Each structure stands twice: as structure tokens, then as C-alpha cells.
Amino acid sequence: ERTFLAYIRTSLVVAQQGVLIAQLFRLQAAEALADRLGFRRVGTPLSVACHCVAILVALVGAYRFWRQQNAIARGKVFAGGWELNSVGILLGCVSRQHADTWPWRCN
Question: Which of the two ends of the chain, N or C, has the fewest CB atoms closer than 10 A to its terminal CB?
Fold first, then answer.
């Protein structure tokens, strides 16, 4: 149960990051120049990507919880697995994309 709550907590943080990105990039849209790639054009897809990753993390957490409960019923416990690696890779990709498109990099 604690593991499932940890996945849900991570999912909520990624979703909050998506909302934060959308709001900050919309605030910056008023200052953007017309000839450059606008902050709104970059912020909206990045925000949507964060929300998609948040949904995927929640789904992976639910799958892992279901798998652990079935294993415990049989007297086994799973540790590690592809779920942890996939969540780490997804969060790393979103963080990397966020760092590459932050306003000080859009000059």
C-alpha cells in the first residue's frame, strides 16, 4: 500500500509540474518576440507531456500494486523490476526536456 501511495504521490507531483509549466510559460508569452519560438508553443506540449507521464506513472503504480498483492497471496515478494526503470526513464525525459526549453535557453 505504501508503494502504491508513493506512485500516486509521484504522479501528482509530475501533474503539478505540468500545471506550473503551463502557467509560467503563459505568463512569459506576453513578453515573447514574434520572430522567435514562443513560450506558449513550447509550454503547452511540455505541459501535456507532463500530464501524460503522470497518468502513466499512476497506471504503472496500480499495475505494480496489483502484481505485489497477487505475489503476497502466493507467499512471494517482487523487488525491483521494469516498472521502476520505466518511471525513472519517463521522469528523466520530462526533466531533460524541461531543462532544454526553460526561458533562459530560448534566446
Answer: C
Whether residue 44 contacts residue 25, with contact meaning beta carbons closer than 8 Å, is answered with: yes
DSSP state of 36: S
Q: Give the number of other Cβ atoms within 10 Å of residue 39's Cβ.
A: 23
CA 4 and chain centroid, separation: 16
CA distance 16 to 57: 13
Q: Is residue 106 predicted with pLDDT exceeding 70?
A: no
pTM of the model: 0.72
User: Residue 29 contacts by C-beta under 8 Å, 6 or more apart in sequence?
Assistant: 38, 39, 40, 43
Question: What's the rounded Cα separation, in Å, for the pair 49 and 96?
Answer: 12
